[in-house]
Amino acid sequence: MRITDIRLGKISVPLIVPFKTALRSVNSVEDVIVEIHTDTGHVGYGEAPPTGVITGDTTGSIIGAINDHIMKVLIGRDVDDFEDIIRAVNGSIINNTSAKAAVDMALWDLYGQLYKIPVYKMLGGSRKSIETDITISVNSPEEMARDAVRAIENGYNCLKVKVGSNPELDIERLSAVRQVAPDALIRIDANQAWTPKQAVNILNRMQEKGLDIEFVEQPVKAHDLEGLKYVTQNSYVPVMADESVFSPLDALKIMQMRAADLINIKLMKCGGLTNALKITSAAEVYGVECMIGCMLEAKISVNAAVHLACARQIITKVDLDGPVLCSEDPIIGGAVFNNKDITVSDEPGLGIKGIEKIRYIKF
Ligand SMILES: [Mg+2]
What we know:
Layout: E1 3-20, E2 25-38, E3 43-48, H1 52-55, H2 59-70, H3 82-91, H4 97-114, H5 119-122, E4 129-131, E5 134-136, H6 141-153, E6 158-162, H7 167-180, E7 185-189, H8 196-208, E8 213-217, H9 225-234, E9 239-241, H10 248-257, E10 262-265, H11 267-270, H12 273-286, E11 290-293, H13 299-311, E12 315-319, H14 322-325, E13 331-333, E14 336-338, E15 341-343, E16 352-355, E17 359-360
Parallel strand pairs: 5-6, 6-7, 7-8, 8-9, 9-10, 10-11, 11-12
Antiparallel strand pairs: 1-2, 1-17, 2-3, 4-15, 13-16, 14-15
Helix pairs in contact: 2-4, 3-4, 6-7, 8-9, 10-12
């Protein structure tokens, strides 16, 4: 199975409602698609969302990294030389983790197809289905309570709430959500909004009010590992590192420092399944549970994350609600998303069969 061509394209998928965080507001998923073609007719699929505010990667930089650097080390290579190829991709350019993630997942897709085995089984195969949380968008407390009721009615039992802009209002919002969802797990994501002392103060007030927060994601700035550690040591709420962890090395450092209780793995931060596996291995050694998360992504890259989550038991938390936030699904094949329940595909590779409405880029 020799790589003959790499085609790049774009897809545009509208969201049901705008997605708002402390950093941005977004109306649709606009992602870069990678197709790796082979002389056997097999195609490997990958996807990368341009999430400039988090990864620094833009549509232009993703396309440029693949077209100008990564493609050169792939054309003509045999997929069976898998490790060699993966190393070549990672050595072809520094950073650019979203572009690398898209290519890495497309290569795993092909490797699975070559040996006729689903990727989640190649990586460990611990389960066939997982349950995701759902994000309740930041709005008035009344609106958020209504959204929470709707989520519970649709079967979700784990809600994720974005916080950070206004602590008093955050507590009001969370109280409204907790009141209508007394049994749900509620996790919050501050997306770097607080100073360490603010974080401890706000989180402890939340717990004193009986909000029973499962964990908080990234309370402080990404680079402030000492601050993260301070929050971890002084808050009643368990702390998850998200923007602080891109590479396996970042994850290892945080675990060695005990700077966080939990780690959020995203393929776009670490550069794909290969590096994500390294993080899960380190986390297994340290006994640090992980969440698998995603950016605003359509189903191709989220599907790859599903394979990883179904492979490894150390991933105990799942935040893969990207596809259910989209108003249409142009992706054929892959995991089945049914509200909170996600079932992995048993087709070889990653199980993606095709993409509708892809706009190919001509060079
Ligand atoms: Mg986060």
